[in-house]
Amino acid sequence: MSFALVAGTAVTGTAFAQDAAPADQEATTLDRIEVTGSRIRSVDAETSQPVLVLSREDIQKQGVTSVAEVLNRISAAGPSINRTFNNGGDGSSTISLRNLGASRTLVLVDGRRWVSSLGGSVDLNTIPSAIVERIEVLKDGASAIYGSDAIAGVVNIITRNNYDGAEASAHVGQFSEGDGERTSIAATLGANTDRSNVVISLSRVEEGEVMAGDREQSAVPVFGRNDRSGFSANGKIWNAGPGDFSEFTIVPPGATGTGPAGQQRYSLDQFVPWSSAEHGYNYAKDNYLLTPQTRTALYLKGRFDITDSISFVTDALYNERRSEQQLAGFPLSGGPALGNAANTVLSGDSYFNPYNTLYGGDGRDVTWSRRLTEQNRVYQQNVKTVHTYAGFNGSFQFADRYFDWDVGYNFNKSDQEDAQIGDANMLAVAAGVGPSFLDPASGRVVCGTPDNPATPDVNEQNIIDGCVPFNPLAPAGTMPQEQLDAILFTAQDAFQNRSESFTANLSGEIVELPGGMMGFAAGIESRKESGFDRPDAFVAAGYTSGNSRLPTSGEYDLDEIYAELLIPVLADVPGAQLLEFSVASRYSDYSNFGDTLNSKFGFKWKPFEDLMVRGNWAEGFRAPSIQTLYRGIADSYESFGDICSSDNPGLTATIAAACAADGVPADFIQRTNGGDGYFGQTIYPFSFGGNPNAGPETSTSETLGLVYSPSYVDGLNVTLDWWSVEIEGALSTLSVATILDECYAQGNQTACSLFTRDPVNYQITSMILAPANLAVINVEGYDLGVDYRFPETSFGRFTAGLNASYTSKYDIQQTETAEPENVVGMYFNQDPNWRLRANGSLDWSMGDFGVTWITRYYSGLVEDCGFGPLCSDPDRRVDTGPAPRNKLGATTYHDVQARYELPWNGTVKLGMNNVFKKRPPTSYTVFANSFDPQYDIPDSSYIYMEYVQRF
């Protein structure tokens, strides 16, 4: 199927069978292969589990430059992090099958584990697409075969093997708006001798940025509204005493101040009342919409046949990723009223304080805020991934039985260095907003007071603890560079993830049964995982304007043993052209939480040649990650609605009574960074941390399906599979809303102990958020695959395909006792729960020409909406009261590629993705850009050209 939407195992099996030896040869001479989902090598590539195969040719028809983009297009993929994640992204890209989370999808490379992040997911950007021969996606649980993480499925990336020749390729493209340029070049060389093969590949990918301000939908904080940040580019002060939040802002740039150039002060009569429409800042335009990155990779793979039946095999990879995210200048503030330390208020003795007594004021300290628009926040990553595998494999015959074996050592390490540019050193800020005055001798503003001046150095710079007077009330664009240099700093963080393992496997034949030879596989694995996060010392100490976090470090090891049997019961009898069963079990012993045993059972039945019925039942588990176990306390400014706030639309008498019992007054109003009101970002950091007592998740997976290849319609293959995954003890961190509901609505005192309120203003000032085995998830649906290769005509050959995944149930229980919530068709922030995803393709080829048309479909969604008339259904009501919603319409993208085979063994391709410049549906609950980052960049087609030269 042209879009790599091979319709499950039926087509996969056909494709592999064509590479096997003729049927009239002895079975032991046929090529035995290992298909993802089983360790038993077999000449039959059809298994009891649904496997989707994406060939190299299929991948190259999509016009993409990364493995992540390929995988996130398949219909079984749920939302996952990618390059459109700017605020909250780190340049990595992952895959989440069934929308069960990237850490519940096991990623293998050549059947072996790859290095994962501290959170347990694999960054697909560490795997260059140039080395990929094919990708096998097992859409079923497989912990009995592979161990932890294989709950939602397995992605097995098969690299190029036994390649002989040379190939160079180039990809150049950009969006129709003239931005987001991409360049990819790769060269691969392979050589064979009688006893060996070596493959070397070098590749580089450069992907440029797209600015949010360059697309209408993302150019403002909320599309369709004139929202602005309360952190103005001009300095803003809260004028009065405690409890009085009357807001003022400085006059626009151009106002006449007094004092030396670049250090002017402004009197009160130049301040005007704050107006969001007039003075609020549009931070969205400064952000990346699509983040830039470059990836450089060197890959080596080799095989040497020591004897006719024993080979030494090795492969190695070095991959370097440099990526970047950009946000608007930091929204800096000072004073405890805005959640800062008391010493960050603008001192009444500051030269820049309009209430300074030297200029006729009353000397009061003032709370202030200002966005540092003179310096954007930039986050840069340099990630170096190293992989090495060395081992031996071979085969032998014993007692007329055939056996395969392999032993090897696998090592993966990823080192990451991060730079955070544009955060403020709050020690320097606190010193800078302290007392200062205009020194008549030097004509400069210096720290201290006239009675206690700073001692200047030879350059007349004040040197009290490195103090430079800071003016947070400077108009937009007038902040002196000296002041910026004094308060800004670049944080340097370091991360490492490391995985090493020893494996040994044996597979072969046992006894002859009526259906054929019973096959088996068995093996052992010993593995160690370790990693750390070492934040900048200032970040760890909490001296920065950004979120602080403490170091994370941890490791664990495990030993595993598994066994698998393939039991062919019947073959070539009436009602059972084939009937076979498979069983497997894996025992894992972890150093941190203990042991676990997981098993599976599957069957495959062909009542007649055209039809195969298949099914599978499997236990699964996911071990807690290093971050889950050992994460250091980290700050996060969460957006939430305080259930006790009097403007809470869901406030009930029960909740009000519980809040009153906690001392919260009836007229209490939640205060957030966006101003007064319900549901905004807290002004106080909440604390995320690890849980060393966390245990593994457990799951049960079931599939039942059929593969139909009617002999009367040559070239047609249809697969239909029902699937179900139930996860118990799912690791989750309770949301702020759930904790508050448990406390005030359910009376759970344990939940109440997780947060504290200020005894004066009753704002929630702290909350502890840590993962635990709390949730239950139950997901169910259907997969459909149709592939039809039309008979060849005088007009060429046509191939059509459809691959769809329909989710009928996605129940989530936050705790075991909570009521399940079916979220199918619901949209939550950066979490679309599509009911249906489908991909269709039509491929035409004639001689040296070929054209592929691909269609990608995302079903509609609905979201809770509090944006009044912007909501598609603002008047919706339920039994408990108003419940406005917004509909996110279904979205369909169209991609096209045309290619031509040149006489000199070259191929040229021209393509366009999102041909009709489809705009994604607007969301009012998404965190940024007004559309979910899983959709394509709005109002743009991606146009590209590729050239491949083979030698």
From TrEMBL:
Pfam families: Plug, TonB_dep_Rec_b-barrel. The keyword Transport applies. InterPro entries: Beta-barrel_TonB, Beta-barrel_TonB_sf, Plug_dom, Plug_dom_sf, TonB-dep_rcpt-like. Its main location: membrane. PROSITE patterns: TONB_DEPENDENT_REC_3. The keyword Hydrolase does not apply. Gene3D superfamilies: TonB-dependent receptor, beta-barrel domain, TonB-dependent receptor, plug domain. This is TonB-dependent receptor.
